[in-house]
Design brief:
This protein is of the alpha+beta class and 187 residues long. It has five helices and four strands, in the order ααβααβαββ.
Length: 187
C-alpha cells in the first residue's frame, strides 16, 4: 500500500488523556501548518487561520475556557470544569481553528468551512510521521475565544485541535465497509 493510502487509513482521533507529556518543537508545528496551507480553496479565499497555544498559552487557554464554562452554565459540573481546564495542558500544542470568512462573501460559507476542514485534515495526516496524535474538539465555548484573544470581525473559532505525542501502536477504529455507503449508477 502507498504511504498516502496508509496514512489516510491510519488517521484517528487521539485524545489529550492519551498524550505523553512532551513539548512539540516549533519546527514540527510549522511543518504541519505548511501542510494545512496547501488545502483546496475556492476562489483562493484561503479561509483557514490558526492560533497556536503552547507553554503558558495552553494554561491560560484552559483557565479561560473553564471560567467561561462556569459563567454560562448555571448547573456546572465540577469534574467537567477540571477537564476543560486541564486538557490544553496535556497537549503538546493546541491550535484554535479559525474560519476567516471572505469579506466579499464570494463563496458560500459552507465551502470555506470545508476548506478549513481540509486544512485540518492535512495537519492530521502529517502527525503520524512525528509520533503525534490529534483530536478536533468543537465545544460551544469556541464562540467565546474572541473574549480571550483578538479575532478579526470576519473570524470565528470553529474548534480546537489538540496535538500531542502518543503511543503510535494504539488501535485504529475500524470503519464500516465502503460498499455499505456507495451506490454505483451507470445508466
Amino acid at each position: 500500500m502507498s504511504v498516502i493510502n496508509d496514512n489516510i487509513r491510519k488517521r484517528r482521533s487521539v485524545y489529550p488523556l492519551q498524550y505523553i507529556n512532551k513539548p512539540i518543537p516549533k519546527e514540527i508545528l510549522t511543518e504541519l501548518l505548511l501542510n494545512a496551507n496547501h488545502a483546496p480553496t475556492h476562489k483562493l479565499t484561503e479561509p483557514w487561520r490558526f492560533k497556536v497555544f503552547t507553554g503558558n498559552g495552553k494554561k491560560n487557554l484552559g483557565e479561560f475556557l473553564a471560567k467561561k464554562y462556569r459563567e454560562i452554565t448555571p448547573d456546572f459540573n465540577s469534574s467537567k470544569i477540571e477537564k476543560i481546564k486541564s486538557n490544553p495542558q496535556k497537549a503538546g500544542a493546541v491550535l484554535a481553528i479559525i474560519l476567516h470568512r471572505d469579506i466579499d462573501e464570494r463563496v458560500p460559507e459552507w465551502e470555506e468551512v470545508a476548506s478549513v476542514a481540509c486544512a485540518v485534515q492535512n495537519i492530521w495526516l502529517g502527525l503520524d510521521q512525528y509520533q503525534l496524535g490529534g483530536y478536533w474538539s468543537s465545544p460551544s465555548l469556541c464562540k467565546f475565544l474572541g473574549d480571550h484573544i483578538e479575532l478579526a470581525d470576519n473570524e470565528s473559532c470553529i474548534g480546537f485541535f489538540y496535538i500531542g505525542y502518543c503511543n503510535s501502536s494504539e488501535r485504529v477504529n475500524e470503519k464500516k465497509p465502503i460498499e455499505e455507503k456507495t451506490e454505483w449508477i451507470d445508466i
